[in-house]
Design a protein that fits this description.
Helix 4 crosses helix 5 and helix 7 crosses helix 8. An eight-stranded mixed beta sheet has the order 2-1-11-10-12-13-14-15, sandwiched between helices. A five-stranded parallel beta sheet has the order 4-3-5-6-7, sandwiched between helices. Strands 16-17-19-20 form a four-stranded antiparallel beta sheet, with no helix packed on it. Strand 10, helix 8 and strand 11 form a beta-alpha-beta unit. The protein folds into three domains: 142 residues, Rossmann fold, CATH 3.40.50.980; 220 residues, 3-Layer(aba) Sandwich (Rossmann fold), CATH 3.40.50; 104 residues, GMP Synthetase, Chain A, domain 3. By secondary structure, it is α/β, with parallel strands linked by helices.
């Protein structure tokens, strides 16, 4: 019997075990000079599961992960999945109220963090009553500091692990809460089941035609779903290999690809533009990449990139809650679109009254899936938001799209007020919360303005309290101390009043139309540097 034929057995632990059985000591994960086999993946994740089990972590428990890209993150994520526990990967740039909100909202009992990020984690611990302890991954020989919660050495705990007592895990069980940006409120946490990860993996494997001969280069952060379910999981399913980089580096990208013989890379639109900026070389196309998968590539850059670097690019559209409804494939693609409808999805485009629109017309993208447990279970601890997203028994994405006569779909724009900068989703609500906390600020509105790479830059429009004075630099310093660097606005625009409707709702569309008006402060033009 095919072990992946039933939803009950379609789990991440099943994939890890099958990989070890089929491929044994064949290399799976490359990280610099370190190499881990398929069997290592199984053994290391077993050790993590056993060590967490000894700490009382079990099925359904939530564990926050604050780590950069490193093999330990992979082992921890897979070990948690074997326990039936739920990983809560946190962007390492988050700090302050946003960080404490995510950890608390997810009901995390444990935080596992690298020592490097303790400057983020330590200050919020007093505000996290549900967190029982913190496990710190320090470098060998580095002391683990005392914190406001009981603190453990992650290396010591894993090294002392006994035997793992297996836990029954089903495809309907959750494995992750991956926070996505809020629009009119705080960030929401989609609760994702194991079968969701396998469905994503199968789609990418089929569309990209992965085999054991492929090596997937992953420079996107593991705390994002892309690196996990669109890279690591497909590699496990196809017997391919993963090359893990600490982060994307334009100067190292092509040398890494050539050194490791990488055949695939998942990109974000800005990455394409950045790589194109490099001085052309005669051997640009002399590389092993055969396919790149992503979204957001500026249309004018698409053909230039393919021609210059000799690689096939596949654009798609997706979101954490629903996976990948659209993706161009090697056998069916149309540049400038997000691709045809993927198998297993039902999609319709509707106007503001919910009426379906025809080819060429713009409408909101509504989605349903045909397989059970192939999308999020809910927005964790947000029942109202969950119900609101499922109006008329369709999931409302909040994104506008259109379909051409050939059945290819295109993303048009966001209906909601989320922003996206350098591949990071940003909640306008959370930016505004921080800005409004400044004693000189009466109210504010965060909106997106386009940069030359075709992505969003954050502009904050600010109304000061009567008689108050505040410089753009002063406001930016306030922001940077309280939010992730990528959330910190680039543009600061002081206004006498925000445009509003008769019901006192801010007319953000009008602010976006006005854009960077005369007198707007540009921190990049002013040379203001942000610490990361």
């Amino acid at each position: 019997m095919n072990e992946l034929a039933s939803v009950k057995t379609r789990t991440i632990p099943t994939l890890v075990r099958l990989g070890a059985e089929q491929h044994g000591e064949r290399p799976f994960l490359f990280f610099g000079d370190d190499v881990y086999s398929f069997a290592d993946l199984d053994r290391q994740s077993d050790a993590v599961a056993a060590s967490l089990q000894s700490l009382g972590i079990g099925k359904g428990d939530k564990v926050a992960i604050v780590m950069g890209n490193r093999p330990e993150f992979v082992f921890l994520w897979l070990g948690l999945s074997k326990l039936g526990a739920v990983e809560v990967p946190i962007n390492t740039a988050h700090r302050g109220a946003v960080l404490s909100y995510m950890v608390d909202q997810a009901d995390c009992r444990l935080i596992v963090t690298e020592a490097e990020w303790l400057d983020r984690v330590s200050p919020v611990l007093p505000d996290l009553p549900k967190v029982e302890r913190v496990a710190v991954l320090a470098e060998p020989g580095e002391a683990v500091p005392a914190l406001a919660k009981p603190t453990l050495s992650y290396r010591e705990v894993v090294a002392q692990a006994g035997a793992f007592d297996p836990v029954e895990v089903c495809g309907s069980d959750p494995f992750a809460i991956t926070f996505t940006s809020g629009t009119t409120g705080p960030s929401k946490g989609p609760l994702l089941p194991h079968n969701y990860a396998l469905c994503m993996g199968e789609q990418v494997c089929a569309q990209c035609e992965y085999t054991e001969a492929d090596r997937l280069y992953n420079a996107l952060p593991l705390f994002h779903g892309n690196a996990q379910v669109l890279s690591t999981i497909p590699a496990l399913m196809s017997g391919a290999q993963v090359v893990l980089a600490e982060r994307f580096s334009a100067s190292r990208f092509w040398s890494d690809v050539r050194r490791f013989g990488c055949t695939e890379f998942n990109y974000l639109g800005a990455i394409v533009a950045i790589l194109l900026k490099a001085e052309p070389r005669p051997d640009d196309a002399d590389n092993p990449l055969r396919v790149m998968v992503g979204a957001g590539c500026p249309p004018e850059a698409f053909e230039e990139f393919e021609r210059r670097f000799g690689v096939t690019m596949l654009e798609g559209y997706g979101m954490s809650e629903i996976g990948l409804p659209f993706l161009n494939t090697l056998r069916k693609r149309k540049p400038g679109t997000a691709g045809p409808l993927n198998p297993g999805y039902q999609v319709k485009l509707v106007d503001d009254e919910g009426e379906e629109v025809g080819p060429g017309a713009v409408g909101e993208i509504l989605v349903r899936l045909e397989q059970p447990y192939a999308m999020m279970l809910e927005y964790y601890r947000m029942p109202e938001a969950t119900v609101a997203s499922w109006r008329d028994l369709w999931f409302h994405t909040g994104d506008y799209g259109k379909r051409d006569e050939d059945g290819f779909y295109s993303f048009v724009d966001r209906k909601k007020d989320a922003l996206r900068r350098r591949g990071e989703n940003i909640s306008s609500h959370e930016v505004e919360q921080v800005v409004n906390a400044h004693p000189a600020v009466l109210e504010s509105a965060a909106v997106a303005v386009k940069d030359p790479l075709g992505e969003d830059e954050v502009m904050i429009c600010v109304v000061l309290k009567p008689g108050a004075a505040l410089s753009p630099e002063g406001l930016l310093e306030h922001c940077h101390e309280r939010m992730a660097y990528f959330m910190t606005p680039r543009y600061v625009r002081f206004v006498d009043a925000l445009p509003k409707t008769a019901t006192e709702k801010v007319q953000k569309a009008k602010l976006r139309e006005e854009g960077v008006a005369p007198g707007t402060f540009d921190r990049e033009a002013a040379g203001v540097q942000l610490r990361r």
